Amino acid sequence: MSSNFKSVLFAIVLCIVCSLLLTMASSGLKGYQLRNINLDRQKNLLRSVGLIDDQRNNMPEYIEKLYSEKIKSLWVDPSGRIVKETERAQKDLPIYLFIEENVVEAYIVPIDAQGLWGKINGYLAINKDGSTITGFTVYKHAETPGLGGEIERSWFQKNFEGKKIVNKEGKFVSISIARGAVRDVIQKDLQLNFVDGISGATLTGKFLSASMKDILKEYEPVSVKFRHHMVKENAGNNSAAN
Amino acid sequence: MRRTETKILKVIFEPIWKNNPVMIQILGICSSLAVTVQLQTAIVMAIALTLVVAFSNLAVSVMRNVIPRNIRIIAELCIVATLVIIADELLKAFMYDISKQLSVFVGLIITNCIVMGRAESFALANPPLLSFLDGIGNGVGYGSVLIAVAFIRELLGSGKLLGFDVIPRAFYLSGYENMGFMLLAPAAFIIIGLLVWLQRTLINK
């Protein structure tokens, strides 16, 4: 047997053994991983409306219970009307409602944005007044750790709390990430529509701002309904946002 | 019998102090800068690396007589990569928060010079048990440096250890401040440098 043939044979056998091991590991652990990913998503959703904070170690059972009690997920069509999950069309948008004692306290918009290096996934929660942001969280991104990756840190996300997606006249302007500290670079009457930027991550901020604007524009019909107090009671029935 | 015993002890303990992979051979510096901001991530990283080195040494050593010499590096790499991916999958399944914090650095164990270095220079020439122990020794040697650096950085940088506050409130009230510099990568460089200095001084005594 020539030595070349032996090498090739060895390589093939090694590859097969290694790939078998990897397949076993990946399929065997998939269930646990999916549960973790789902839990992390729910945790972020709850965090965006301030139901849990980062500091405490939240038990999985507690998160699942809180999520099923307080959060309701539904679909709206582009004009802001609720559609049934079974009848939903391609263009319909997912939205989450935060319900406390049968009152919608806030609605949560999934932010599936384009970052500099890949997708940024997170949630933006907006108060029932339809204009004030109550929280922003990121649960998945591919930005550079230490630079754009700072978007997952609480100092950056805390910036969003209390900011508005509308200007002084009540017109929709979205929320943008400034180049530097808002206090220094944005004129006073616009400061409510900007959050502090991350140094070294100007492009991540630019991309995220642009995506957020597009996404919030799509959800604007829903926001308008909230702004005009057209959402009164809980979403237990489909008339909530009619 | 005595001779094998002393050899085993030597294989385990030499890399922990006298021939430490980080401090003497200056290997694995990149990850020691990255994951030592907190003690918890450093400990998990130390355990993951120890397991990977130990088992890759074991696997390479078991196959040392069948691995064709001309493709041995690729074969070693293949074994190491498989083990690292399995470790990563395990972390994602059972320690999701920590695996998020470690992010790419678990995957980068593959490129950690310690793993390939031990496979190439030790496991290819020694029997399985000895190679396995050599892996443990090197992993612990690497891990102990990581933990020492993380201990200093977390204590001085955020006033915590393993996430618990350890600096009394009274300190802060009387003007003590956390050293923000410790949270940045250059701080780890300086600490490792000082540790190397300290260790060489102690060894040469």
Describe the structure.
The complex is a heterodimer of chains A (242) and B (205). With 242 residues, chain A is an alpha+beta fold. Helix content of chain A is 38%, strand content 20%. Chain A has 6 helices and 8 strands. A 6-stranded antiparallel β-sheet of chain A has the order 2-1-3-4-5-6, sandwiched between helices. In chain A, strands 7-8 form a two-stranded parallel sheet. In chain A, a hairpin with a 2-residue loop joins strand 3 and strand 4. In chain A, helix 1 crosses helix 2. Chain A is globular, with a radius of gyration of 22 Å. The termini of chain A are far apart. The relative contact order of chain A is 0.12. The C terminus of chain A is likely disordered. Chain B has 205 residues and is mainly α. The radius of gyration of chain B is 19 Å and the shape is globular. The longest helix of chain B is centred in the C-terminal third of the chain and has 31 residues. Chain B starts with a helix and ends with a helix. Chain B contains 10 helices and 2 strands; from the N terminus they run H-H-H-H-H-H-H-H-E-E-H-H. A two-stranded antiparallel sheet of chain B has the order 1-2. The interface between A and B is medium-sized, with 21 and 23 residues.
Walk me through the topology:
The complex is a heterodimer of chains A (242) and B (205).
Chain A: H1 3-48, H2 60-70, E1 71-76, E2 82-83, E3 93-100, E4 103-114, E5 119-127, E6 133-140, H3 154-158, E7 176-177, H4 182-185, E8 194-195, H5 202-218, H6 220-227
Parallel strand pairs in A: 7-8
Antiparallel strand pairs in A: 1-2, 1-3, 3-4, 4-5, 5-6
Helix pairs in contact in A: 1-2
Chain B: H1 2-13, H2 29-34, H3 39-62, H4 72-94, H5 96-102, H6 104-107, H7 113-121, H8 128-158, E1 160-161, E2 164-165, H9 169-173, H10 185-204
Antiparallel strand pairs in B: 1-2
Helix pairs in contact in B: 1-8, 3-4, 3-7, 3-8, 4-5, 4-7, 7-8, 8-10
